[in-house]
Amino acid sequence: MPRTRPRADALAQAVVLRPEGWGPGFRAQRPAASAPGTVAVLDARCSWQRRPLPGSVLASSSRYGELPGTDGRGTLKVTASVTVHATVGAADEQLATTLEDALRCREQQVRTDERISQLASVATPYGQNGNTYADDSVLEIGSYLTGNVPQPYRWNVARLGPVTVAVAVMGATGYREDELTRYASYALTTMLGRIESELGGKN
Fold first, then answer.
1. What's the CA angle centered on 57, arms 87 and 44, to 5 degrees?
2. Domain of residue 109, residue span
3. Distance CA 102, CA 145 (A)
4. 75: exposed, middle or buried (Cβ count in 10 Å: 0-12, 13-18, 19+)
5. Are the C-beta atoms of 140 and 98 separated by less than 8 Å?
6. Cα separation of 75 and 118, whole Å?
């Protein structure tokens, strides 16, 4: 495992799924990536902000992509994130916080014109309900709103040792929920596989 921030950042950059990695037609949003040396934090007002890395986090990287709308479908927006924590305990705490955030903030501001609401989350530790791929995982679902038209939203977070990966899929007109699930599952398993490859096997 990386013990320094430069090595942790190299791992995060090797693991995080870039927009084109989601599939044909995907492209980068603007901005395309998170600011270096920052991590996403849900503040007291239930608004997502980028903050400087705390001592418990060695590196964090997020990539933002979209699949432009065609043939009556809207634009599908996606996010992939990797966070390398200083300890397994710190990574575990992130998943616990994810569960609590859905209770604390049933509605959250993602960007100026984007918010998510009606949130609910569930945890699935290794060995339960088919989780054979990560030490722990959390699924958060709800509604995504840009303007006044709600769409399905899902956020999957998984942990391997001190590394957490997360994918968010914001639904759009013309997409079924099972399609969103497939995109999220593919992105999550791809990044988990990259962690194993970079670190030489499962933790």
1. 120
2. 5-199
3. 16
4. middle
5. yes
6. 22
Closest C-alpha to 63, from 22, 91, 93, 98: 22
Task: Work out how many domains the chain is built from and give that number.
Answer: 1
Give the separation between CA 11 and CA 8, rounded to whole angstroms: 5
Cα separation values, 24 from 20, 27, 68, 93, 117, Å: 7, 9, 11, 35, 29
pLDDT tens digits for range 76-119 = 999 999 999 999 999 999 999 998 999 999 999 999 999 999 99
Low-confidence ranges of the chain (pLDDT < 70): 201-203
pTM for this one? Answer: 0.94
In angstroms, the CA 162 to CA 55 distance is 14
What pLDDT score does 203 carry?
44
DSSP string for residues in 99-117: HHHHHH-SSEEEETTEEEE
- Continuous segment of H or E residues that includes residue 158: strand 149-160
Q: Output the pLDDT for position 201.
A: 62
Amino acid letter at 159?
R
d(CA 6, CA 18) in angstroms, rounded, equals 20
At 93, which CATH number?
3.40.1000.70
Categorise residue 130: left if φ over 0, alpha if ψ from -120 to 50, beta otherwise.
Answer: left
Q: Are 184 and 154 in contact (CB under 8 A)?
A: yes
194 phi/psi in degrees, rounded to 5: -70, -35
